[in-house]
TrEMBL record:
Protein name (Swiss-Prot/TrEMBL): XRE family transcriptional regulator
Gene3D superfamilies with a match to the protein in the record: lambda repressor-like DNA-binding domains (1.10.260.40)
InterPro entries hit by this protein: Cro/C1-type_HTH (IPR001387), DUF5753 (IPR043917), Lambda_DNA-bd_dom_sf (IPR010982)
Organism: Streptomyces caeruleatus
HTH cro/C1-type domain: residues covered: 16-70
One GO MF term attached to the UniProt entry: DNA binding
Pfam family name, one: HTH_31
Length: 292
């Protein structure tokens, strides 16, 4: 169990090692190609030390890696601020975003698929502005005061949450599969009108081809996800970068071991079996929205 930066270093190192091996190079040969000592390559590959984006670029060039999307993903893992479109917009909010949240957003922006269990609130990628504002105000208790700074920070965090939703409109879009505990739909956040609009937003989202929503009803009883929500990020170019994220009040934890990934993947598949089908879930949410 690691914090985000350590996970990213290890994953980046493992991927660079695989690319080097695939290029038929020893670590010593790779080091000579880029003008380094062999120990530097070894430290990077084991995640023992960080690596600058410029150094990653040198290694990718030496290994003949031409895949633009894979190159960008690895550069983002190295902390690169370069690139266009949706991949780096969050750097404008560095002053209000804790490092773990920035790590989460960087992974989300590069992932090809996201599977999530939500037990309390609507997934951030599907929240309306009013719902996002109510959730953010409740989650960050220090924003409850009336100071101008608190209001500005609240609005900045809401803006970040809404900007994150662009991944669903990108080309190609992030594929989102979410299991929502019935409590998510029943908990009245922001008041009746805010919740009514949020439910209608979920109905709209459930009809998108890249979004799969399933409701886990109270009638399902106890289930494997009862201990709390989680997110699984998957990457189209390499499964070695897949990671599970567990969110806590003051930090996030990242699980990268294959055993952990397998356990959470099996848990998510089990939850989908016990949940209503996507079609049944859409009808259920629509019925709630109609009566809200």
């Amino acid at each position: 169990m690691q914090h985000g930066p350590a996970v990213r270093r290890r994953k980046l190192g493992a991927e660079l090692r695989a690319l080097r091996t695939g290029a038929g190079l020893t670590s010593g040969e790779a080091a000579r190609l880029v003008g380094w000592h062999q120990s530097k390559v070894s430290r990077i590959e084991t995640g023992a030390s960080g690596v600058k984006p410029a150094d990653v670029r040198l290694l990718l060039d030496a290994y003949g890696v031409q895949d633009a999307r894979l190159r960008e993903l690895l550069l983002v893992l190295a902390g690169s601020d370069e690139g266009g479109g949706r991949h780096h917009w969050w750097h404008a909010y560095r002053g209000v975003l804790p490092p773990t949240y920035r790590d989460f957003i960087s992974l989300e922006s590069q992932a090809s698929a996201m599977r999530t269990l939500e037990t309390s609130v609507v997934p951030g990628l599907l929240q309306t502005p009013e719902y996002a504002r109510a959730v953010t105000r409740a989650a960050v208790g220090g924003l409850a005061d009336e100071s101008a700074d608190a209001d500005e920070r609240l609005e900045a965090l809401v803006a970040v949450r809404l900007a994150r939703q662009d991944v669903l409109r990108a080309e190609p879009p992030l594929e989102l599969s979410a299991v929502l505990d019935e409590a998510v739909l029943r908990r009245e956040i922001g008041g009746p009108q805010v919740m009514a609009r949020q439910l209608r937003r979920l109905v709209e989202a459930a009809r998108l081809p890249q979004v799969r929503l399933q409701v886990l009803p109270f009638a399902a009883g106890e289930h494997v996800g009862i201990t709390g929500p989680f997110v699984i990020f998957s990457f189209s170019r390499t499964s070695d970068l897949d990671v599970v994220v567990l969110d806590h009040l003051t930090s996030s934890l990242y699980l990268e071991r294959k055993e952990d990934l397998q356990a959470y993947t099996e848990a998510f598949n089990t939850l989908r079996i016990h949940a209503l089908s996507p079609e049944e879930s859409l009808d259920y949410i629509a019925a709630l929205a109609g009566g809200a």
